[in-house]
Description:
Blueprint: H1 3-14, H2 19-36, H3 45-57, H4 67-80, H5 105-113, H6 118-130, H7 134-138, E1 145-146, E2 151-157, E3 161-166, H8 169-182, H9 200-214, H10 222-235, H11 240-247, H12 252-256, H13 263-266
Amino acid sequence: MTLLRERMQHDMLIRNLAENTQTSYLLQVSSFARHFRRSPELLGPEEIRAWLVHLREERKLAPASLGPTIGALRFLYRVTLKRPWSDEDFPLPKKPFRLPVVLSLEEIITFFGSIASLKQRTILMTAYAAGLRVSEVVHLKVTDIDSQRMVIRVNQGKGHKDRYVMLSPRLLEILRLYWHDAHPRDWLFPGDIPGQPITRSAVALACRVARQRSGIQKPITPHSLRHAFATHLLESGTDVRRIQLLMGHRALSTTARYLKVATSTVCATTSPFDLLPHPEPLQPPPSPPEYF
Length: 292
């Protein structure tokens, strides 16, 4: 490990950057340095510009995919190397706004019915019933399920924040059934490696298999269940602010995007087409005369 890499790691640690962000930033800077075969300390704006052009033209990365690269280099030069950095020259690309694809209640039922494994079904049901991120559900511990207060404790979710979410009575029944079958001790959903929780990739694989078996054409990932949780709460009349707290969103605007897909919002207004008078029924064309 070079001194520069170690210093950048310490800078990210001091600023409490997420572990995934730290890993991504180090990977981006390493790729940048390997491309030019020199330390980033010897590289400057011209090399950064050439690297971004290379990623776009040679590696065919989409503009939005350059965000992690620009973020990593900006942190390296501005924070670790204390060099001038121009956001005007290297702006973060705007991410395209895409609405989530939401499963209906009927599709949720069909999807869960297509999961053969009790453990996999319990994991994905927990993700939906509590609106958890996949990283949050795989790191649940047995002690996080508080049946006395009917809450689930989420330890150090995104942004290193703790929060509580509701414990559905129906989910509690399923968790008890799963516990009597698997008898987990520490991690609620242990993985194949002793002492470690199930991996996110294993949950994603279970999700893909269940989608194929269900015959549902919509894309389904573990995060789709979180989208469905928020949307279905909105459609049942739950306040947006309360959903924000349950989801662990920092900004209310993040939660408010579900207003754009909830049927209670989209379908609540009458289309002007329905206000038009009903036209007279179309008369069938006259039959041609018969000559034989």
